Amino acid sequence: MKNIAIISASVRNGRNSHRVALYFKKFLEENKLANVKILDLKEYNFPIFEERLRFISNPSEAMLSFADEVTKADGIIIVTPEYNGGYPASLKNVTDLLYAEWKRKPIAISTVSAGAFAGAQVLTSLQFTLWKIGALTIPAMFPVGTVEKTFDENGLPSDEAATDKRAAIFVNELLYWVDAKHKMEIE
C-alpha cells in the first residue's frame, strides 16, 4: 500500500484548514487507498530555520523526523490556507528546510480560505516554489472556499457525496503520478 503524507500547513490558533487535512486522512483510509500520516506543522512547532537540513550541524529530532516522513512518503498532499494571497510562513519554512527530499516527489495541493475564492491566489506561488526545488506538483487541485461552512472541526464535509466525488478525482490524480514515478524508477 502507498504511503501518503498530508502536510497541514497552518499553525494559527483557530485554524480551519486543518479540517481539510482531517478529511483527506479519513477519505484515504476509509477507501483503503493509502497508509496516511498527517504532518501537522502546528505540532512540530519548528523555529525559523537558518539553513537547509543537510548543512545544520545539530538538527533537532523533529527536523530529522519531518525529513524522514517526507522521504518515506510516496506522495504528499499539502493543505494550505491562503493568507493575504500567499501561503503561511510555516510552510515556506519546511519547504526550504529540505531539498533532496522534495526531488520528484508527487505533491497535490489543496488550497483553503474562509472566502469564496478558495485560496486560488496561493496556488501559483506555492507551485513555483515546489517546482524550483524539483518537486512534481500534480495538475489536479482541491480548492475549498468558505471552509468553516464546508467542513466541520472534525473534517466532516457538509455535502459528503459531492466532496467525496471531487476528492476521488484529486486523489486518483496524485496516485497516478505516484504509480508513474514508481514505474520510471523500476525501468
Automatic annotation (TrEMBL):
Tell me the ranges covered by the NADPH-dependent FMN reductase-like domain, including all copies. 3-145
Q: Which Pfam families match?
A: FMN_red
Where is the chain membrane-spanning?
Answer: none
Q: Which GO terms describe its cellular component?
A: cytosol
| Gene3D superfamilies referenced in this protein's UniProt entry, alphabetically | 3.40.50.360
Molecular function as annotated in GO: FMN binding; oxidoreductase activity
The highest taxon in the source lineage is: Bacteria
> SUPFAM superfamilies given for it?
Flavoproteins (SSF52218)
Q: What is this protein called?
A: FMN reductase
